[in-house]
Amino acid sequence: MARAELMDFDQALELFEPVIGLEVHVELNTTTKMFSSAPNPANSAFHGAEPNTLVSPVCLGLPGSLPVVNGDAVRKSISLGLALGCSIAESSRFARKNYFYPDLAKNYQISQYDEPIAFDGELEVEIEGGKTFMIPIERAHMEEDAGKLTHVGGSTGRIQGAEYSLVDYNRAGVPLVEIVTRPIFGAEADAPALAKAYVATIRDIAIALGISEARMERGNLRCDANVSLRPRGQEKLGTRTETKNVNSFRSIERAVRYEIQRQAAILAKGGTITQETRHWHEDTGATSAGRPKSDADDYRYFPEPDLVPVVPSAELIEELRAALPEAPAARRRRLKGEWGFTDLEFQDVANSGLLNEVAETVAAGASPAAARKWWTGELTRLANASERDVVELATPAQVAELAALVDAGTLTDRLARQVLEGVVAGEGSPQQIVDARGLAVVSDDGALIAAIDQALASQPDVLAKIRDGKVQAAGAVIGAVMKAMQGKADAARVRELVLERAAAVE
Amino acid sequence: MSEISAEQVAHLANLARIALTDEEIGHLTTELAQIMHAVEKVSEVATPDVPPTSHPIPMQNVYRDDVVGNTLTAEEALSGAPESDGSRFVVTAILGEEQ
């Protein structure tokens, strides 16, 4: 649907109530796959491997191969379930979801159906601006990821018009936890922002638990967004669509907003919504129709006969519960108080996904203000300029060391930025770069005075103005001195000395 | 008593990618109904005090340590493939059935 045909968002909200439901897939970062001892590409140690090199007979569904459950994946799934406030099933089992598509060679996916590992949870989610919502979690179940298809041929390279497909089974069998919400009511105009914040909260939980790399751009975290509208005052839920392929936090918000506007336009004209999956297109900012949604019956689920039930002991569950980190929403409230940030300053950090970096930098000794400044300022700028991930540019320890050098007066902000460029270029620790590049502030007053005297001598008119009480004229001398010192001087100290010398020199 | 319709058999055959003639659908409809009735007998003995059995052997919690084992090389993985590009399997494009 063209942009112009969409209904205005505010108007859509006047006529209809949006109801959303979110399915989030989290790839676990175990060393090996869910049912096979092949290396797991969702673990950063194996990321980017050549196609079909992280496979075993189980991943390829070869005759005679049998799955065996990865115990660590079960423990990580339970931890995630607990962090989502879920009950953990006393007994849980796997099921076969049958479908024919070459992304899984077995022609079925091992998943869970009627006995998921975790169910009935609740997650507190805070949106930008500080409003919080309780998101009801229906279930979190374990399953295996599918292989990756690349469609070749056709004019666009997209699936339509493809002539053949190339299959890489490295991802087949990667441990996944699928988290399914119940329908979320009452978000109203915040529905798009809430969808985004919910997935960001799951990302934070996964990182805090250390169970997933949780990087959306790598597909470690994926979101399918269900959206339906019902006319104001109507009890019955409207027909929903499920938008897939939403690969960034920003896209989640945009996709939900788009579906609300698209469905509203259709319903307002008396049309009906088709229950279907839709594909999100990042480039056009629109969704397009996919396949009609299959009924669960069509997957002909049945208990996986090759695997036995998962019956976690109460001791194991309590052990994992005791090891849970602080809930993200509570942690944010605590950090905001401890750091003394304004709402805006805190959101600046949180929305940049730099909460952990700033927290670790503060823990390493930096002031919260300095930690925030370096991460959301210069480092983010360098990351954008080089199209790299900001967290890969420097470590919290390096940033804390840099801040300490500034506090000690060894570096000015300007010099510190140069040191940071050195850190990003991998030249070593801030102190090593200061030594190697000779970047420390010239704190020797003798050297400064010599440069000041020279600058004053060469600009007698400026000297005269300063002596007449026009102190702002000192700027020209300070500039000349800073240039002579190659920027390695504290401008405030230079100013003090300039005024002193102007009064003293003959 | 469950009844099986010819439409259900045709639908199942389609899901299983099995081509059936009308004649085959006819006698499979009868046979499937008989199988269903036989299986229904289980529900007569499945009282609430009988726990469901998901495995013939009463076992639970069979796990593997999270340690890398033997893997195949890409060459080995592709050795049985009808067609490959040297590193990936080549399959006919199947449209619109992505799960």
UniProtKB/TrEMBL annotation, chain A:
<dbReference type="InterPro" id="IPR023168">
    <property type="entry name" value="GatB_Yqey_C_2"/>
</dbReference>
<dbReference type="InterPro" id="IPR006075">
    <property type="entry name" value="Asn/Gln-tRNA_Trfase_suB/E_cat"/>
</dbReference>
<keyword id="KW-0436">Ligase</keyword>
<dbReference type="InterPro" id="IPR017958">
    <property type="entry name" value="Gln-tRNA_amidoTrfase_suB_CS"/>
</dbReference>
<dbReference type="InterPro" id="IPR004413">
    <property type="entry name" value="GatB"/>
</dbReference>
<dbReference type="Pfam" id="PF02934">
    <property type="entry name" value="GatB_N"/>
</dbReference>
<protein>
    <recommendedName>
        <fullName>Aspartyl/glutamyl-tRNA(Asn/Gln) amidotransferase subunit B</fullName>
        <ecNumber>6.3.5.-</ecNumber>
    </recommendedName>
</protein>
<dbReference type="InterPro" id="IPR014746">
    <property type="entry name" value="Gln_synth/guanido_kin_cat_dom"/>
</dbReference>
<comment type="subunit">
    <text>Heterotrimer of A, B and C subunits.</text>
</comment>
<dbReference type="InterPro" id="IPR017959">
    <property type="entry name" value="Asn/Gln-tRNA_amidoTrfase_suB/E"/>
</dbReference>
<keyword id="KW-0067">ATP-binding</keyword>
<keyword id="KW-0547">Nucleotide-binding</keyword>
<keyword id="KW-0648">Protein biosynthesis</keyword>
<dbReference type="InterPro" id="IPR003789">
    <property type="entry name" value="Asn/Gln_tRNA_amidoTrase-B-like"/>
</dbReference>
<dbReference type="InterPro" id="IPR018027">
    <property type="entry name" value="Asn/Gln_amidotransferase"/>
</dbReference>
<dbReference type="Pfam" id="PF02637">
    <property type="entry name" value="GatB_Yqey"/>
</dbReference>
<feature type="domain" description="Asn/Gln amidotransferase">
    <location>
        <begin position="356"/>
        <end position="502"/>
    </location>
</feature>
<comment type="similarity">
    <text>Belongs to the GatB/GatE family. GatB subfamily.</text>
</comment>
<comment type="function">
    <text>Allows the formation of correctly charged Asn-tRNA(Asn) or Gln-tRNA(Gln) through the transamidation of misacylated Asp-tRNA(Asn) or Glu-tRNA(Gln) in organisms which lack either or both of asparaginyl-tRNA or glutaminyl-tRNA synthetases. The reaction takes place in the presence of glutamine and ATP through an activated phospho-Asp-tRNA(Asn) or phospho-Glu-tRNA(Gln).</text>
</comment>
From TrEMBL, chain B:
<dbReference type="InterPro" id="IPR036113">
    <property type="entry name" value="Asp/Glu-ADT_sf_sub_c"/>
</dbReference>
<comment type="subunit">
    <text>Heterotrimer of A, B and C subunits.</text>
</comment>
<comment type="function">
    <text>Allows the formation of correctly charged Asn-tRNA(Asn) or Gln-tRNA(Gln) through the transamidation of misacylated Asp-tRNA(Asn) or Glu-tRNA(Gln) in organisms which lack either or both of asparaginyl-tRNA or glutaminyl-tRNA synthetases. The reaction takes place in the presence of glutamine and ATP through an activated phospho-Asp-tRNA(Asn) or phospho-Glu-tRNA(Gln).</text>
</comment>
<keyword id="KW-0547">Nucleotide-binding</keyword>
<keyword id="KW-0067">ATP-binding</keyword>
<dbReference type="InterPro" id="IPR003837">
    <property type="entry name" value="GatC"/>
</dbReference>
<dbReference type="Pfam" id="PF02686">
    <property type="entry name" value="GatC"/>
</dbReference>
<comment type="similarity">
    <text>Belongs to the GatC family.</text>
</comment>
<protein>
    <recommendedName>
        <fullName>Aspartyl/glutamyl-tRNA(Asn/Gln) amidotransferase subunit C</fullName>
        <ecNumber>6.3.5.-</ecNumber>
    </recommendedName>
</protein>
<keyword id="KW-0436">Ligase</keyword>
<keyword id="KW-0648">Protein biosynthesis</keyword>
